[in-house]
Amino acid sequence: MLGLVKANDKRHYLKESTSWVTKQKVDDDFIPSHNFIEDLDEIPFYDYDLRDIKKHGHNPAMSALAAIDNQKGFHVMTSRGCPFKCTFCASHKVHGRSMRYHGIDRVRSDFTRLKEEYGATTVIFQDDHLMGNIDRVYEILKIIKDLHLESVFQNGLTLYALDKKMLNAFYDAGVRQLVLPVESGSAKVLKHSMRKPLKLSISKRVADDCRDLGIYTNTNILIGMPGETKEDIEEGRRNLRTIHSNWFHIVCASPLVGSEMNEIAVKNNYLKGDTLGADYRKAVVETEDFTADYIQEMQYIMNLELNFIYNNDIKFGEYDQALKGLLNVIRVKKDHSFAYYYASLCFIGKKEYKEAEAHMLNAIKYCNIGNWWKYIDYFGLPKDEWMKFNLNGLEAHLNKIQNMDEDVHINSNNKLNPISVNTDVY
Ligand code: SF4
Hints:
Strand order of the largest sheet: 1-4-5
Bound molecules: iron/sulfur cluster
Shape: globular
Strand content: 5-15%
CATH class of one domain: Alpha Beta
Distance between the termini: 41 Å
CATH topology of one domain: pyruvate-formate lyase- activating enzyme
Number of helices: 19
Number of strands: 8
């Protein structure tokens, strides 16, 4: 960019550049190549005075960002690049596979300026592979702690690097929530369809360690990868129930332009409908193994199953933690009968019966307005409780959840009838 700004003849510069793309170059089948700034410290501090900070906002549907003051949370990227080759990711097309870093002094100076000049209270990390240099992570956590900043790691962190010592350092720096990029509950899908070097035992261990420490975890899961079968999805559903995360974010695999997944989908004619704006909510991949409608349905079923039916926090009697997720759902989707129902169970667990009744009455009200009966049938839930506030019945259900065997599994042969496409996240 600096080269372009400084060039006397800008058209000539664009024509000769190996990295700038113009319409003419596209017509000539030009293939651009990267021209990276190797020393990230050459990039100046972003001048926030150029923008209207009041219009700065975060996606309220993302529970990781729900609690952040829009005007005081700032996105930061202290490194660029990622050496891994996850098939669903296109990060390497933008930042390459080699790691490049801001120096630690520069990180300290930027965070200090964000705090002192713009009133930042939170830094939201956008690094693709923050854990690429472990010593550097400890130093960054020390900066966060020294400056009394909150921090959010939106892209998730490489799980194998989150050993107990590292998690303790995160906790010590004030980190109270992490995104876990588990991506699938099937070892086969992780290895072959996603090419992600991750073992389920590590995901399980990290989720348990975070729970012990008091770090809230939000686990990311993708379904509908080319090569994934319905059996893999069923196996994934079963295994995910053994990962004791606080919340699961289940999305439909999206064929990002530049990702290997997109190349496979195009080559095999797997794309269905308009892929622009699919945004992980809409299933747009259809293979020999599944239809897009099936993935859409399973995405919603798995969301209900992992976050409500088998909510880990309710299972362990950690009702305040459970209510964080459930009340966040109610905040963004006011007619979510399941969220009211399970929140009611939490209030019963807390012996706050008035709140329990109020939430149950909403569960009943919205159940009769919305489409919830089909899901109540699908999961075999106690119907009587959805008809009237029945304290004994609800207490019995709460007890059942807390004594449920993790091996009990609802098979997706339990079809919803008729299959309906629901692109809601919750
Ligand atoms: S998903 Fe994350 S770990 Fe995998 S290649 Fe992309 S940035 Fe790297």
